[in-house]
Amino acid sequence: MKRIIILFSVLAVCSQAFGVPQSRTWPASGKVLVRATDEQEPVNAETMDSQAFFDSNTSARYTMPDPSAKVEALLKQMTLEEKVGQMTQLEIGQITDGKENNIQINPAKLEKAIARYGVGSILNVKDIALSIDKWHEIIGAIQQAAQRTRLKIPVIYGIDTIHGANYLQGATLFPQEIGMAATWNPELMKRAAELAAMETRAAAIPWNFSPVLDVGRSPLWPRLYETFGEDPYLAKVMGVASIRGYEGTNIAAKDRVAACMKHYMGYSFPQSGRDRTPAWIPEIYLREYFLPTFQAAVTAGAHTLMVNSAEINGTPVHASHYLLTEVLRNELGFRGLVVSDWQDIQKLVTQHGIAATEKEATRIAVNAGIDMSMVPGDYGFSDNLMALAREGAVPMARIDEAVRRVLRLKFDVGLFDAYMPDAALKANLGTAAAQAVALQAARESLVLLKNDNGMLPLAKGRKVLVTGPTADSLMALNNGWSYVWQGTRADLYPKDRPTILGAIRAKAGESNVAYVPGAALEKEINITEAVNAAREADLVVVCLGEGAYAETPGNIDDLTLPEAQLKLAEALMATGKPVVLVLAEGRPRIINRIADRVGAILLALNPGNEGGQAVADVLFGDFNPCGKLPYTYPRHPNALLAYDHKAWEAGDTGFGYTAYKPQFTFGYGLSYTTFAYSDLKLDKHTIARGGEVSLSVTVKNTGARAGKEVVPIYLRDVVASVTPPGKRLKRFAKVYLEPGQSRTLTFRLGTSDLSFIGADNKPVVEAGDFEVMVAGLKDKFTLTAK
Predict the structure, then answer these.
(1) Distance between CA atoms of 771 and 717, rounded to whole angstroms?
(2) Nearest CA among 229, 218, 134, 116 for reference residue 176
(3) Alpha-helical runs (H) found in 610-689
(4) What 3-state class would DSSP assign to 328?
(5) Distance between CA 512 and CA 463 in Å, rounded?
């Protein structure tokens, strides 16, 4: 990729809780020490514009020594059985007995897995998040068993640290990826990933199955909250931030883990919108929208990759030599480890029907490019692969290639030097500094969607009714991958973190806050009682949205909020009292019946355990909201155009219907202050191929309080051989401005920013006119043919 330089006239401040006194210093480096509140320790933060961040973090060089010689020496000593064992990954239940906190190593099971089969990796959690002591006990036993084997190859443990070390009791949970995307703050994403890595490594787990790099272009898809939203550029910047945070420049360090980019690729765009169902994606679209995030992650040096569980155009990705070898290896240049997803080689038989036997499925998948099979509940993969190797159906060269990658990963993460848990790392768990960053992230993730007549912020002395199914739920603030897979065990959430209700009570005073549930997620409870309570209050905060879900159990048929929730909101609005709607959800649930009638809407995209406090801080004005939508919020269930639709798709039909009229647009979000844009200027209006254009724009805080503004730069190719989108995001920056303060930001766009995937499925740059759009400002430049 051509290196593009983007300049700020002044570096932006990352994180202030506006409305409370701030402590700031301005070192020459541009770094800023900021306090989220006066009582918290400073959080180091440095922001820069998106491309400068992206360039600096994709070009970072790893400092680990090259283990190639050690890998080759070890590989020469290995038998076929030992090699196949290294390619096998089992779940924790294959070596343990018991449930939940009573889980224990079963010595006979462990001996079978490690000594007899030489299993190279164990993953997952049994039932619930474990204590750090239990993790040390289990992983210590696994590594001791490995040291009793002939070659003493350590086992690499893998876990889904999705939004913090969510399978570790006492760990810090951050917003889900969709919430982090709403911050539009890659430096904050990087810092959250650093802390998640530190806490995961403290549990002696060096491999994290994150980040999700699927681009979220299907709002119905239940894993939308695990993505960075609908735009490939925003997703790749935030994805690189998370990878650099997890891995740093040395994944052997005691506070780093190996990242796993997933789910390669096209998983997030199923035709039905349901998880693990077929996608039909033309290659031109696949390369334009779904490949860029993985290309960026490969360039950034991500060490591992997990494969899409579903199929694209009739071919399961686990069986696709084209995608796994020709594109991933030969085209993108990925040299790391490819691991299957859960049972997905077996599913080539049981689900996809492209193989009659599991043995045949194993041959197809390994020859396609799978290096390690997340089996994960039996030894069929090992037995089948050994038979296939002896028959010559899977070449030994292919097995050696896969095992090299497994061994290299183990050397890179430092397992051969330090395979046992380190008790000293327990101090890294659940620190006050990590909690402060989680609160900062939760605050910046909140998106103010509506604020008629300045209804917000609320005065703290008013009588408030709090109601709705997400008002008193940490589950709704976290969603899946929280203490258990589905996130649905309320008893496992921390007792010292407030729900939205708890935080409002603390902010406004117990005597000023009434609570009536009103409705559950899917059914009415006591709407009449809620209406009666509303009549006694000055205003109502109604909290609606979703509970917790993960993967296939989160499938739904309609994005519309359940009827019980809508009826609750309508009944409350009928009282005539001011109504503030707080939405806690992982995907955009349709609210057109009530959106135009409530006075204010605040969106909480699974902000994590600090989300209750963050919501209260915004509602009462102790933090000025600065989140922006990372996706288009639809108005109707089937009106699902993304922001970068073709220009003609948005036109009026002439029969009173406008095709593109979302509830809220991509990049939308309000503040308690106002911003004005002016003086969009280009340094030239004609550039030659290989040249670049510099653009500048001035942003001014025209309101009465300090605030942060996301400045997005959009580009439109006016005429192209493949019909161009109406606009595409190319740059963004997040800037902090005091009242009356203005800054002029300068960006540069190069020829590579003008490229698109042509009809031959290859990148192309065509001469012609290009329109730059910033807020309501526009200008145009021309790329000449030479």
Answers:
(1) 7
(2) 229
(3) 611-619
(4) helix
(5) 5
Residue 445 backbone phi and psi in degrees, to 5: -80, -20
Which CATH code is given to the segment(s) 673-783? 2.60.40.10
Spelled out in words, what is the top-level CATH class assigned to the domain 434-650?
alpha beta
SS3 label, residue 66: coil
- What integer pLDDT is reported at residue 62 of this predicted model? 87
**pLDDT, tens only, 446-498:** 999 999 999 999 999 999 999 999 999 999 999 999 999 999 999 999 999 99
Separation CA 602–CA 612 (nearest Å): 12
Domain regions of the chain by residue span: 75-422, 434-650, 673-783
CATH of the domain spanning 75-422, picked from 3.40.50.150, 3.30.450.40, 3.40.50.300, 3.20.20.300: 3.20.20.300
Contact 541, 462 (CB under 8 A): no
The two beta strands, 539-545 and 311-312, are: unpaired
Q: What is the rounded CA–CA span in Å between residue 296 and residue 649?
A: 30
Strand 304-307 relative to strand 337-339, pairing = parallel
Set 160, 214, 275, 341: catalytic member: 341
Determine the pLDDT at residue 656.
64
Q: Taking the model in full, what pTM does it have? A: 0.93
Q: How far is CA 532 from CA 222, 501, 514, 536, in A?
A: 36, 19, 11, 7
Sign of the dihedral through C-alpha 75, 78, 79, 80? negative
Question: Do 75-422 and 673-783 have matching folds?
Answer: no
8 A C-beta contact, residue 329 and residue 369: yes
Helix axes 527-535, 563-573, angle to 10 degrees: 20
Distance (Å, rounded) from C-alpha 752 to C-alpha 764? 9
Is residue 324 within 8 Å of 330, Cβ to Cβ?
Answer: no
Per the annotation, the verdict on 341 as an active-site residue is: yes
Tokens for 632, please give them: 């288009």
